[in-house]
Design goal:
Blueprint: H1 2-19, E1 39-43, E2 56-58, E3 65-69, E4 77-79, E5 93-95, E6 101-107, E7 117-127, E8 135-136, E9 141-152, E10 160-170, E11 176-182, E12 192-203, E13 209-214, E14 217-221, E15 226-233, E16 242-248, E17 253-257, E18 266-273
Antiparallel strand pairs: 1-2, 1-12, 3-6, 4-5, 5-12, 6-11, 7-10, 7-12, 8-11, 9-10, 13-14, 14-17, 15-16, 15-18
Length: about 270
């Protein structure tokens, strides 16, 4: 009987220490993640859906698609908040086991282009001892950088670690940022993911791709998330361009014909992301 009482007291104090765990400041993210036009999604896994929708999102130009596969039957899979010690108080968690993975396809531009690039920042919160650097499915990653910090230490179970990877990736004629987070071979209970936050900012160039010009008729491939300003000059020596028309991109070919039909004129098209 005494043993039972002592055991209960120990469990009680362990719970108290877990609830009072110290939270350390999270890793500072790049300044551009708050810029206009940034696409962002946050997954906190409130349900056990293997194709979850984002818990929070901003700037979406299409529906993101996430796929979760725990691979092995011995892994716990999704753990509901408050039902197990491997949750963090932030929703639910996924315990993926050995070689489990998560993949995400995130639309970031309206129309593909051969030289389109996107800046990315991927922040994950995982159980201590786990490393899940993103593996990109298209293009080449330029100058990636990954850092990890313990943000919630726990002396009784395991601590929670934030991992932040930033860099730039070529989209290689696609419109999506696509990557996977794959658990390392040999991982078990430590392969636990609590949260994923992704920021993406497309590298939009200054001028559209002109595909056809005939007199005062101009056609080009437009982006659905961009606005186009057409300016005209009849005196290029003085660079006196005046805006004459503003139009929204459609994600396909668009055209403009000067309604004034001047005898001689020069045109400039400026593109700005919405």
């Amino acid at each position: 009987m005494k043993r039972r009482v002592l055991f209960r007291v120990c469990v009680f104090f362990a719970a108290v220490f877990c609830l009072d765990a110290v939270v350390i400041a999270e890793i500072a993210l790049p300044a551009w993640v708050t810029d206009d036009g940034v696409v962002s999604v946050t997954y906190r896994f409130e349900t056990g859906e293997t194709n979850p929708v984002p818990s929070v999102s901003a700037g979406l130009i299409g529906a993101p698609v996430m796929l979760i596969d725990k691979v092995t039957e011995v892994s716990a899979g999704w753990v509901e908040e408050g039902t197990d010690f491997i949750t963090r108080g932030n929703g639910g968690t996924w315990e993926l086991g050995e070689s489990g993975f998560m993949s995400l396809v995130l639309p970031v531009i309206g129309t593909s282009a051969p030289d389109a690039c996107v800046d990315f920042c991927i922040s994950t919160v995982v159980a201590e001892g786990m490393e899940v650097q993103p593996e990109f499915e298209v293009g080449g990653v330029l100058e990636p950088s990954c850092v990890s910090e313990v943000i919630e230490p726990d002396p009784f179970m395991w601590s929670w670690v934030q991992q932040v990877c930033t860099g730039q990736v070529s989209l290689a004629m696609t419109t999506n940022l696509s990557f996977s987070l794959i658990c390392p071979d040999g991982s078990s209970m430590a392969s636990t993911i609590d949260e994923i936050v992704v920021y993406a900012k497309a590298d939009i160039w200054d001028l559209p791709t002109i595909v056809y010009i005939d007199g005062t008729l101009i056609e080009w491939i437009s982006y659905s998330n961009c606005q186009y300003t057409i300016s005209r000059s009849t005196n290029l020596t003085e660079c006196a361009f005046e805006p004459i028309y503003v139009m929204e991109g459609t994600g396909s070919r668009v055209s403009f014909t000067d309604p004034d039909d001047p005898e001689k004129a020069f045109y400039k098209i400026q593109m700005q992301r919405n």
